[in-house]
Structure formats: structure tokens, C-alpha cells
Amino acid sequence: MITIVLADDEVLLRKALAKLLPMEAEIQVIAEASDGAEAAKVTLRERPDVLVIDLEMPGTDGLAAVATIRQTRPDQTVLMLTRHAKPGVLRRALKLGVQGFVSKAAEPAHIASVIGLLHEGKRWIDPEVSARAVVDDNPLTDREVDALRLTSEGYAVADIATRLFLAEGTVRNYLSNAMRKTQAKSRHEAARYAREHDWL
């Protein structure tokens, strides 16, 4: 029996999967969550074999929830459900160690079989998800992304330098490069542009 936590803000879909997945395989839904913060809390408490989590959720999204879980449970197996994997999202998820990606439009039988594969230690990315995400149009370097992400969280240049263990001048260089690449007039505008294009 594979135990799972099911996290999705769409109640109808979550409830349907909670009923259908156990009918497709030896799967037991031990808890449900309606947002990322709740998903992290429930997963750390229940310690499921597999966390099945929606990528797009209000507040704390799926990636942020997985990042939180990883701090305490670095080996937690994660299957991410998504409608549209924009360029950059798949890469960020893989960096976080997400083992599986399935389209939310997939049949419950397919989702159940992927849960089984992940539980066996394998990985799975739906072809349609990887096809959409393979076009990586992000011109920013990892360091430029780090600097913009902290900018979007409201940190000043000095704070960003401290957090990234860099000199302030270096951070300013990263930010000005990012502004040039995004054709933005300010670092905040560059951060907003990068977030809208899902590069952060």
C-alpha cells in the first residue's frame, strides 16, 4: 500500500482524485491539503510515501511548499501536477528534487501508475509537460535570478549582498545586467518582468 498526501486548491479535482486513485492501485490517501502551507505542514506530520501536489496554488505554491518540506524531509518523494509548465518551472522543480511531473488533464489511472513508479525510485515527466517546458527562454544567469528574487521579496542591495555572500558592487552588476536583459528601468521592474515570465 502506497500512502499519499494530496494537495490541490481545486476542491472538486482533489476530492475526485482522493476517491479514484485508490480504485486504480494500492494507494491510500492519508491526508489532503488545499494550499501549499497546509501541504507542507500535513506532509511533515503524516510522512507519506508520495506527496501529490498541484504546482499552481494561491499563497504558497507547490514549489515553495516542496522547498519547505525538503528542509526537514530531503528524501520526500514528490509528484507535481500542472496545467502548464512554463519555461523555468520544470528546471526549478528538478533542482528541488521533484521526481515526477504529470499533466492535471491526465487520467486517474495514469496518475496512479506514475505514483507507483516514483515509489519504486524511478522518475517520470509527462511528454507534453517536458515538450512545453523544454523551450527555455530565460536569458538570466542563476546569480541574476537570485538577486532579482531577493529584490522582489523587498530586500535592499546591501541585504541581498549579505544573503548571497557577495560584495554590494557585484550585486549591483548582476542587477544592472538583469535590467539590461529585461529592458527594465529599475531592478524592481526587472524583478516583476522576470516573475511574469516565470524566470524566478
Automatic annotation (TrEMBL):
Record bears the keyword Isomerase: no
PROSITE patterns: HTH_LUXR_1, HTH_LUXR_2, RESPONSE_REGULATORY
SUPFAM superfamilies named in the record: C-terminal effector domain of the bipartite response regulators, CheY-like
Pfam families reported in the protein's UniProt record: GerE, Response_reg
Domain Response regulatory: start-end pairs: 3-119
Domain HTH luxR-type: 133-198
Positions where 4-aspartylphosphate occurs in the chain: 54
Keywords, comma-separated and alphabetical: DNA-binding, Phosphoprotein
PANTHER family named in the record: TRANSCRIPTIONAL REGULATORY PROTEIN DESR, TWO-COMPONENT RESPONSE REGULATOR
Name of the protein in question: Response regulator transcription factor
InterPro entries: CheY-like_superfamily, Sig_transdc_resp-reg_C-effctor, Sig_transdc_resp-reg_receiver, Tscrpt_reg_LuxR_C, WalR-like
